[in-house]
Every structure is written in structure tokens, then in C-alpha cells.
Amino acid sequence: MRSLPILKEPQKVTAERLFRGVFEPLYPRGADLAELRATDANPAGNPSILAALDETARVFATLAPRALSAPSLILDFSDASVHRLAPLLTAEVRERMLEKRGDEPPLLTHFVIHGAVYVGACIVKNHGGAWLVRNPLWETRVRLESRAGTAEISPFSWWLKSFSDDEIGKATLLDRYRTHVEVPTFDPASLAVIAPSDRRLPRLEKVAYDLFYKYLKAHLPELKDVGDDFPSPARFAELGFRWLEMRLVGDGRILVVHGPTATGIAALFLSKQGFLKQQYYATSPKASHRLEVDGELLRFVIDDEGREATHETFFWGG
Questions:
Q1: Which of 82, 138, 191, 242 is 20 to 30 A from 90, alpha carbon to alpha carbon?
Q2: Are 137 and 55 in contact (CB under 8 A)?
């Protein structure tokens, strides 16, 4: 592996190593990180501190396109802007921004610090998050209340992980934003109803791409399109479903298509607009499963050769 100049040894770049090598020198000597991250740095709600957060986010929105050599990148504090930003956080960008600049911290330092505040600002602006101010400012968190409960989100840690070797180039900043922000705060009532949730949908015993389409036409004619992101015929064949069950959930707003494959349990989620997501749980070939519906919560209960595991997700995402 190529050596990253600021980190010296050519070792695997983990989030921890990135923090220790690049960011830890910026903290007060001997600082107790756990105490620092738990201490409210703005107990009086000083508006000037909140304004500093907003200004930091604006600086990032202005300068990041140039730093990423992406002049067309629009960072307008929308959820979509995080979607546009995440795929640009590549290994090449990390290495370029880690290059030494004399005695100055590497560009990555400022980029991540400002980027963490920008993502926090998107959560506050779009989803009713509340700032949990910390000192230093980049350790600031966001409290988010949603159907999933109350979460304390640390965008700074998301950025460190997104630049680690395990995650870089995989858009995991976007994955975390979607999983921990967009999905829990999504209003499922905004989805159109496909069909009544009590409609009887028989099991598809012989699975093939063309047979699946014929099934939908016969039993769910209201679902006109599975969307551009639905698995291709080749990918559908690769999954190798032994059988498929269909279940309308969320008052008929989501169709869950699920079944066993040779290597696990797969579930495809469709709205009236088309494919939403896929869930996959690796198992042995002999595993069995059932789908339980508890209000907005879905449980995939898997029995894998006597070992039972339960996987939960909201019907509209997760």
C-alpha cells in the first residue's frame, strides 16, 4: 500500500489512525476526549456560536467544489447535496489532500472539519435537528428526533470513516446520511397506495424474471413500473430465488418481495414509483425465514440450522 505522507508508515488507513495522525494534534494537550464530547459548549444558547456554525458550513459550500475539482458541484444545504458530495470522496482526493504543506496542517484537516459542520447543518435545516455544540467546533453533534427515537449524530466521525480504506470510494457518507437521517424522518404517508394491504398475493413457486413480471400483471396491475433501479434480468437470475412471497405493507404503500436464495434471504422493496431498496441477510442454503409486520416495523425472522436471528427495518427504508 502506498504511504500517505502525513501518516508516515504505509499501513492501512483506519478512521482511528486518520484521527490520531491528522486531527488529534489540533486538540488541547492532554484533553479528555470523552469529557469534551459530552460537555455542552453553548449552555446559554449564545446565537453567535450558532452563527459560527452556519458560517463554517457556508465556507465549505463555497470552497469544496474547487477543492474537489468539481466546479459543477452544488452544495445548497439540501439532502440532495449530500448525495452529490459523497461519491466525490475518493482515495485520490484523500491522498492529494494529505500532502504536506510546510508546517501547515494538510488540506484534508480543514476539508473534513468544515464538511462535518456542513452535514450537520443539512440535518438541522432539513430535518429539525438541534445543534449540540462542542469545543472544538467540529466535534459538534446533532440531536435528531424521529420515528426511530432520539439519536445523537456525530458528522465528524462519519467523515473520518468515509475516508478510511474500508469505506473510501463506497459512498458511505451517503449511506449513513440516508440510514440515520433520511429514512427515520421520512413521512411514509407521502407514498401513493399501490393496492389494498389485505389483497391476497399467492407465493410464486417458480421464479424467473419473465414469470415475475407476469405475476405482477396478474395480481398487482396497479404497479405499472418496477423502476430503473430494479435488478436487471441477469442480476435477478444471479440471486437464484427458490420461491418468492409478496406482502403489501404500510397500508398498501410498499410491496415487499422476499424469498430464500442459495446464500441468504433477499427482500426487494417497491413503491408505486418503482424499486426502493434491497435487503440481504447471508445464511446457509438450508435456512428458512418468515416476515412479521408490526405497524411500521418489519421483522425478518431467520432460522439458520437451529440458530434464530431477527432483523428489523422500517417498511419504507432502513
A1: 138
A2: no
Q: Same domain for 13 and 152?
A: yes
Pair 179, 268 in one domain: no
Report the alpha-carbon distance of residue 4 to residue 97 in Å, rounded: 10
pLDDT band at 1, cuts 50/70/90? very low
The secondary structure of residue 198, as a DSSP letter, is: T
For residue 131, give the DSSP letter: E
**End position of a domain, from candidates 155, 185, 215:** 185
Domain match, 250 and 162 both:
no
Calculate ∠ Cα 284-285-288, nearest 5°.
Answer: 85
* Rounded Cα–Cα distance for residues 280 and 145 (Å): 27
Residue 3 has pLDDT above 50, yes or no: no
Do the beta carbons of residue 118 and residue 57 sit within 8 Å? yes
Tens digits of residue pLDDT in 70-88: 999 999 999 999 999 999 9
Same domain, yes or no: 194 and 137: no
Helices within the chain (DSSP H only): 15-18, 33-38, 47-67, 79-85, 91-97, 107-127, 155-162, 172-177, 183-185, 209-219, 233-239
Q: Which of 151, 185, 219 is the last residue of a domain?
A: 185
H helices present in 6-106, as ranges: 15-18, 33-38, 47-67, 79-85, 91-97
Cell of residue 303, nine digits? 432460522
Identify which of 151-155, 272-276, 295-299 has the greatest average pLDDT: 151-155
- For residues 96 and 194, state if they share a domain: no
**Domain extent at residue 155:** 5-185
Q: Could you give the number of structural domains in the chain?
A: 2
Residue partners of 294: CB distance under 8 A and separation at least 6: none
CA distance 237 to 216: 17
Q: Indicate whether 194 and 179 sit together in one domain.
A: no
Q: Indicate the pairing of strand 297-304 with strand 288-294.
A: antiparallel
Residue 9 reports pLDDT greater than 70: no
Distance CA 260, CA 266 (A): 6
